[in-house]
Specification:
322 residues; alpha/beta; 6-stranded mixed beta sheet; 4-stranded parallel beta sheet
């Protein structure tokens, strides 16, 4: 891993992460959809991380990070902030490795995600809004001498998420475009690094909700931007800031960042459910929403992968969307 001001992960780091997490995670499928492909004019595939353990990609990065802790750090325990999927991924990974875990979550977190995190053995602290979590987390970390496991802005987390990019290339060598949902940027940082360093011609498109465009604004201003307000139904993409590490990777490897509305996300989610029988959460549907509503000009017949990043949607929330 290069120790430079750009803090970029190497391909070798992602390959090492793949070796670390092998046997702990599912090799999720790359699934084609002829119907939605005809509708969008491309050869369409979904990388279905909805079928990952804990219901999202987050387990990959969490396992890689925990594996690299010292014995003393593992003994003391870890802490993080999360609106749900990273919480569950870290809680599950910690339980497998017998590491105490604490998670600070927004008070408005869907009940299913809170219950799942506790069910995996983590202590949950409910506190304020998404924008308030980091201060509370750092306070508890200092009091208890815990190790912070950042939800996205950590090279080891990024390398873990990058294993998805390796799997996409292995399962679909002809891939030409990859659409990736963007919250804090850990997922797209890892995927774009893995793919660009192995097959540079593949186009990587990051997709954010209009009401949570921290990464796009950070790229535009060439500095990490903290949003004063986050408004989106896609709580998995509701990070109020990007990270130094993730911003560096996005600037280097991502071809474009586009925005989708909540209504576009809902329509994409419903189509995936109706036509593919796959239930994804709003965050997971964002990539397909960008393709569906032509946020970028994809050539007809191109081989396109949309990453379905997670499937942890509260049933009450789902009922309201449908």
């Amino acid at each position: 891993m290069r120790r430079s001001e750009t803090m970029l992960v190497e391909l070798s780091d992602i390959i090492k992460a793949q070796q670390v997490i092998a046997g702990y995670v599912h090799r999720t499928p790359v699934m084609s959809s002829a119907t939605l492909g005809r509708r969008t004019g491309v050869n369409l595939y979904f990388k279905a991380e909805v079928f990952q353990k804990t219901g999202s990609f987050k387990l990959r990065g969490a396992l890689n990070k925990l594996h690299n802790l010292t014995d003393e750090e593992k003994k003391r325990g870890v802490i993080t902030i999360s609106s749900g999927n990273h919480a569950q991924g870290l809680a599950y990974a910690s339980s497998m490795l017998s590491i105490p875990a604490t998670v600070v979550m927004p008070e408005a977190t869907p009940e299913n995600k809170v219950n799942a995190t506790r069910g995996y053995g983590a202590e949950v602290i409910l506190h304020g809004r998404v924008e308030d979590l980091m201060a509370k987390c750092l306070e508890v970390q200092k009091e208890r001498n815990l190790t912070m496991v950042h939800p996205f802005d950590d090279p080891l987390i990024i390398a873990g998420q990058g294993t998805i990019g390796l799997e996409i290339l292995e399962d679909l060598p002809e891939v030409e475009w990859v659409f990736v949902p963007v919250g804090g940027g850990g997922l797209i940082s890892g995927i774009s690094t893995a793919i660009k360093l192995k097959k540079p011609g593949v186009k990587i498109i990051g997709v954010e909700p209009i009401g949570a465009a921290a990464m796009l604004r950070s790229v535009q201003q060439n500095a990490v931007v903290h949003l004063d307000k986050v408004e989106t139904i896609a709580e998995g993409l509701a990070a109020p800031f990007a990270g130094e590490h993730t911003l560096a990777h996005v600037k280097r490897y991502v071809d474009d960042l586009v925005l989708v509305s909540d209504q576009e996300i809902i329509e994409a989610l419903c189509l995936i459910l109706e036509r593919c029988k796959i239930l994804t959460e709003p965050a997971g549907a964002a990539g397909f929403a960008a393709l569906l509503f032509k946020k970028v000009n994809v050539p007809s017949g191109a081989h396109v992968v949309c990453v379905l990043s997670g499937g942890n949607i509260d049933l009450k929330h789902l009922k309201g969307l449908l």
